[in-house]
Structures are given as structure tokens and as C-alpha cells.
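During the second year of the project, the team shifted from modelling isolated chains to modelling whole assemblies. The rationale, set out in the original proposal, was that interfaces cannot be judged from single-chain predictions alone. As a representative example for this report, we include one of the complexes processed in the last quarter. Its constituent sequences, exactly as entered into the pipeline, are reproduced here:
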Amino acid sequence: MNLKDMPDSPTKDPNAPIVHQQLGEMARQLHDTLAQLGFMPKLGELTDCLPDARSRLSYIATKTAEAADKVLNSVDQAKAEHSRIAKDTQDLAEAVVANPVRAVASGAVINFVTDIEAATARVDQHLTDIMLAQDFHDLTGQVVAKVVKLAGDIEDQLLKLLIQTAPAGQPKFDPEVLNGPVVNPEGRTDVVANQEQVDDLLASLGF
Amino acid sequence: MSSTTDMKFLIVDDFSTMRRIVRGLLKESGYNNADEAEDGVVAINKLRNERYDFVVSDINMPNMNGFELLNQIKADAGLKHLPVLMVTAEARKEDIVRAAQEGAAGYIVKPFTKATLEEKVQKIMQKLGK
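Output from the structure prediction step:
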């Protein structure tokens, strides 16, 4: 039964059993209180956005993983190309030092120049690919902004609800939810901000 | 005991990208022999079935986290000699202290540099006389 369809006052029915009357009063009171507080419609609206937020976060994970793979693949290929150039240069230098005339006459020099031209073009393409792979930052940045706004709205509504309804005392929270990277270490004494502080702490423990 | 160049590393991290980065950095530092595991369960099975010389492990992982893996390694007579370097985003002091107390050979917080990884690996190996 929808609360909107309930009679204004169940106590008006003199034949209703007393327990049902009391339950009806309690249900209406709860509904009216939440409606007066103004939380129900806003929270409902926000929770409707949560599946969308989940899919946005999955999108970010996918885009960043793709970008990381693309960059690492390009780096691997560019490094291999670089190693080949270094080796060919060394080989040519040895050939020129040993017999300059023969090195030129045999075509080793011109072949080297041609190979280097092609190799640098390939390296340039890898660098371009790495640059293009950074497009995830723009795309995910927009998505992150939307998810952050949604999280802020939910936090705001839940905080209002908590203040109105929570019993006195500090609200409990699960410390495990704080696991992971420390986004803002400033002003905190329970975390380290860099590797130097890790090393200092370990040194104080005898490491 | 293996020489530096043929030392075999096991890189344990649930993010394949991070495993690949650590592997690449180790390779650039001259350590070409590395294997990977995506969590502690896979890692402990590999450690019990193959020979490794060094473990580089994340902490936050599904199935078996880095601390549980560290404990299993240190409780196993056949594995407890293995150095375990924690490489993690966990920057809480209590985690660093816990890692040290439970037998980790070193602790690196992400993000880190190639120089940091190289330095920690070398320092640990020097201590072990490798």
C-alpha cells in the first residue's frame, strides 16, 4: 500500500482493531516526518544516480588501463628501436675508423643514413602514440568531476540526515574504508608523505 | 645462492600495469629474470613450486593481501629466507611498522622512482650478502 493512498487519520475508523490503528499512525508519522525533513525526494534522486556513478568509475578504470597499456607498448617499441640505432651507430663508427674509403664505397654509410631516417620516423610515431594516449586524462577528468559532485551531494544529504537523527556521540566508521593512497597527507600524523619519511621511520626501528 | 644477474624476482600486484612497470624498472636495473602474480594466493603457490630469490609485493590485493603473504612466507621454513620488499600505496605509519615487525626487508610507497626501487633492492641484497 502506498502511503499517499492511506486515509488522513486511521483513528477515524472506530471499527479498526487498535493495533492496526497504532501501526497506521506510526507509518504516517514516519512518512510525514521524513517528508517534512525534505530528505526522501532528494536522497531518492541521488541514489538513482549511483548505478550511473558506478559505470562512470568503470569507464575511468577501463580508459586508464587502455592508456597505460598503449604507453607501455609504445615505450617498449621505441626503446628497442633506440637500442638498434645505438648498435648500428657503433658498428658504423668501427667500420669508418677501420677503413673509411671502404665504409663509404660499400654503401654502409648511405645504408646507415637511410636506416636511421626510417628508425627515427618510427620512434617519432611511438612518441606521437604516447602523446595521444594521454587523451584519457581529459575524458576521465570530466567523468571524475561528475562523480565527485554526486558524492558531494550525497555526503551533504547524508550529513544532514545524520545530524537530525543520530544519537549523541561520535559516529563510528570502519577504518578499512580509509585504505589506499593518501590523497592529502597535510596535517596528518598517522601517515607518511614521501619515501624519505618511510626510510626515517624504518631507520628509527633499526632498519 | 644466485648471482645478481640471474636472480629471479616475483612481482605480486593486482594491477597488471604496476607489475609491468616494476618488471620494466627491474630490467633496466639489470634484473632480467622476473615472474608475476596477481595476488597472494597465486604468489604463495608459485613460491612453493618454483625457485625465487626476491619478492616485490603490493599490500592491498584481493584473496590474500601483502601482509598475509608476508606472514605465510615467514612461517614457511622453505621460504622464510626470501627477502620481501613491500611496494604499496599504503602510507600509514602503522602499516610501515607492521611490515617491519612482520619481517619485510623494505618498504616503498607509491608513486616511486626507478632510483628508489634500484636502491632498495641493492640495499637488501647487500644485507643478505648477495
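Strands of chain B lie at 9-12, 34-37, 54-57, 84-88, 106-109. Chain B has a mean pLDDT of 91.
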